[in-house]
Structures are given as structure tokens and as C-alpha cells.
Amino acid sequence: MRLWMKTLLLAFALAALAPAFAQQGKVHVQWLGQAAFKLTSVAGKVIVIDPWLTTNPKTPEAYQKLEALGKVDLILVSHGHFDHVADVAALARLTGAPVWGPAGLTQSMQVLGLLPPAQAGRMNRSGSVKPIGPDIRVSLVHAEHSSELVFKNPATGKDELHVGGEPGGFIIEFENGFKIWHMGDTGVFGDMKLIAEMYRPDLVLMPIGGGQFVMNPADAAFVARDLVKAKAVVPMHYGTNATLPGTPAELIKALGANSGVKVLEMQPGDRLEF
Fold first, then answer.
1. What are the φ and ψ backbone dihedral angles of 30, each rounded to 5 degrees?
2. Which of 2, 88, 136, 158 is spaced 20 to 30 A from 176 at the CA atom?
């Protein structure tokens, strides 16, 4: 057999094996404080969610410089509050990564000059996109919260309040079928059960801080155990300041001994792989 034919056959064989190799890979999850996560897919695609890093007191010092994130392929933002959107524009400029989030939010950021049109992806809840290739799907789902965008006008030095779209959470399905539900900021709502039944997430990134903004640990335990029937939960959005007093220990206690929900407590900077 001629060399060129052998080379062609080998190329076809490797192409056929590629999905099998991908299945053997892992999804990496790194928590960077508050609701900020860096997710690395099986094929090495990097997704950053709700980047508030440079002034976040809980973000490890090593990651308070955006350059430390390295390559970023996609930025997701769940709503317009400062502790979720603070570093979105700067990270987009640094990396060139597209930003996807609630339509009203990313459009406001575009109109205000924070994002160029080519990087401002717009979607509504129930929408699904594949912005970084055919093997990773991102769906926007409901969250029970608010979403206003505060913009400091450089001409006046004054804060302005702009449309922030409707708040949401994200279902991210990776190349190997593993699904993560980043809930964003949310209170309890009945359709959490429907979302779980529709998407069947393997891992839920769940706010537990309580106070006047998000679910407290008892709320989160009810959601994880009775509505979502979660396999595994990573607590987030707690302990950053005095308004978020909930703790993972309270969540574990509220779940009870026989809930079947695995609580994966992380410290900012920690990584898990699945």
C-alpha cells in the first residue's frame, strides 16, 4: 500500500477515535469567589462566569489580575449587578472572548461602549447557543432576582442606572455530556423542579448566602433535596461580606443525613474535576 494511502487511512482512524478520547477527558471547575467560576472543558475550552475578581476580597490574590486566567474562550454573565459584571468588559477586551448573557444586559453594555457589537451575545431565557463550537451548549434559564446595570459616566463622574435585562442562570453541557447548572443569584421558585427535569444537571453551583439577596442555607437545602434532587452541589455566593452570612455547614445540616445530595465545599481558588 502506498504511503499516502496509509496516511489517509490513519487520519480517518484517528478522526473516528476522537469522540472516544474526548469521553475519557474531564471537566475542570475552579471557584474564584462569590459567583465567579472558571470552567475548562474536555477539549480545553475555557468558560468564565460572572467575573468579579480584581476587587473581590475573597478572590485569591493570584487571580485578582485578569491575565492570570490565561486563555478565555467564553464569558457568561448572569445579571447586571456589580458583583457579577464588574470585570466583564475588561476581561472581554483582554481576551477577545465573546460575552453572552441576558439580552437587555449585553445590549446595554454595547450601547454604553463597554462591549463591541461582535462580542455582545444576546439571549433570552429558554434560549440555547453554541458560541464556541458544536460540542458545548449553553442555555439560559430562569432566576428569581433583579438585574440593574450601574454605569459611571466618564463625562460626568456620576453613576447612571441602565437596563440590565432579566436575571438568569446557565445550563452548560460539555463535550462528554456532563452538565453544570450555574444558578446565578436566585431565590426559590417552583420551576427549579422543571429546569432540573428538563436538563438533568450533574452539578449545581448554588447560592447559599442568604441575607436580603439570595437563598439562605435552609432554602438551598430544600431546593437541592426536594425540587432539584441534585446529585452534587457546590455552594457559592456566601461569606464575601456581612450581608451573606450563610455557610456550607448550615447547608449540610439543613439537608439532613439521608438527603442523597453531595455537598462539595470549595475555597476560592480550589479546583474540582469531573
1. -125, 130
2. 88
Number of neighbouring beta carbons within 10 Å of residue 86? 19
Residue 161 φ/ψ, nearest 5 degrees = -100, 125
pLDDT recorded at residue 24: 52
All three cell numbers of 44: 480545553
> pLDDT digits over 60-69, tens only?
999 999 999 9
Cα three-residue angle 117-118-122, rounded to 5 degrees = 70
Mean pLDDT by 10 residues, the chain (274 residues): 39 36 74 98 98 98 97 98 98 98 98 98 97 98 98 96 97 98 98 98 98 97 98 98 97 96 98 97
Q: How far, in Å, CA of 77 to CA of 69, rounded?
A: 16
Phi and psi, residue 62, nearest 5°:
-60, -25
Stated length of the chain? 274
Whether 174 contacts 27, CB under 8 Å: yes
Q: Cα 45 to the chain's mean position, in Å? A: 14
pLDDT in tens, 154-184: 999 999 999 999 999 999 999 999 999 999 9
* pTM across the whole model: 0.90
Residue pointed to by grid coordinates 469521553? 23
In the block, residue with C-alpha cell 453594555: 109
Are the CB atoms for 104 and 78 separated by under 8 Å? no
